[in-house]
Amino acid sequence: MSNFYESMLNNNIGRNLLKTVGLPTPIELKRYRADQPTYFEGKVLVGASDNAALLNDIMRNLKDADASVCYQANAHTAAAIVAAAETNGVKALGVEVSKNMTDKFDAFVFDASGFAQASDLDQLYTFFSPVMRKLNSNGRVITLGRPHLKASSGEQAAAMRALEGFSRSVAKEIGKKSATSQAIFVEQDAEANLDAAFRFVISAKSAYVDGQVITVRKAEQVSYPDWHKPLAGKVALVTGASRGIGESIARTLARDGAQVLGLDIPPAEADLNRVMAEIGGDALLGDISSAEAPQQISDKLKAMGGADIVVHNAGITRDKTLANMPEHWWQMTIDINLAAEERINHALFEHGTLNKGGRIICVSSMNGIAGQVGQTNYAASKAGVIGYVQYMADELAANNITINAVAPGFIETAMTDAIPFMTREVGRRLNSLSQGGKPVDVAETIAFFANPAASGVSGNVVRVCGQSLVGA
């Protein structure tokens, strides 16, 4: 948020004035802090469908958190929840649920993996309706199921796909609390690969990720690394690393233990050198769209022991309506935002520069999903990034390489600060959390994709937008 809006929120007179003129007064988002001992602290209410299959995996993760685990004592699946808790050494407390209950919770987790038909959706109402008012600010709602396109019947596919609409709607209902709701779909036999996705969405690292769906596929199992240094020993390339979102990505990956190679164009040399010096990274100057860039990048990474993480962040905008757009603006935008990424990846694959278990993360955009006036070139390039990611996920799976994308929404940067005041203020509010995000929110999502334990997370496109009201 801008300094003006923050100053208004930080005093009673300002908050009352904002309410009077009809502007929202959002609750500040709680983000990751290095002094937090674990990925989650708080009270969790766990629920489950009939024949739920993910309870053991949920409890395995909660065991490693500072969580007080509760369940609805009168639920007909209570025994299954208790059994899963005991199997994993988790103490679970039964609570009597009613709309007059005094208990409050920091997270609701519901395992809907057993849904087989539309009537099973009643179990969502039974679990959630009595407790929705009992979710604390900055709380989390997580609904787990199976991918609907891999269902055993049309009825099951419908029930699983319904979870997405449910989760997105819940996100809109709880956004005023700065609370979020996500759905995780876990493929059959991919249960052991759940950990990275579950820990990310329940943690403060996902503060500005809301109303999203993450699919977990079967892959090589990697034990969850240290929460604060999950990328220790990894080499990461970040393009466009000198400022804004790229700078935050570089700083966050370095914070998590990675050795960062930051790349940017020669005019950004001073800023790039400053950032890399501050994080102990290496700097590389170049234009990613040049003919020599793929080989130059590959050679540098080879000298560093190969790449474990590649973040395609560099990009440009050249905005005009299609009727008024110069041809070279169109070509330049497509080349830098899309084709250059493909050429660089091809060189890394061809020369064996990307190490086994490598992670490729591409920065798309909300406008690549929803479109925007004057951005036919930019939206086409960013939609192309999504298509590339979704196709390449299967191609790369045999080499244990994952590829995913983030699609930022309204992120507070020097670029957004240049937007006219009223336009900027309206833009901030057009999401369920009623506030803009920060570059670190994009960086945290990229760091999640880069996590060694996210081996089963590939082909995903996660919007970092506070559940923008525009787009899918």
From TrEMBL:
Keywords: Oxidoreductase
EC number: 1.1.1.100
Ranges for domain Ketoreductase: 234-409
GO molecular function terms listed in the Swiss-Prot or TrEMBL record: 3-oxoacyl-[acyl-carrier-protein] reductase (NADPH) activity
Enzyme class: oxidoreductase
SMART domains noted in UniProt: PKS_KR
Pfam family, one: adh_short_C2
Database matches in InterPro entries: KR_dom, NAD(P)-bd_dom_sf, SDR, SDR_fam
Family: Belongs to the short-chain dehydrogenases/reductases (SDR) family.
Designated name of the protein: 3-oxoacyl-ACP reductase
Annotated source species: Bacterioplanoides pacificum
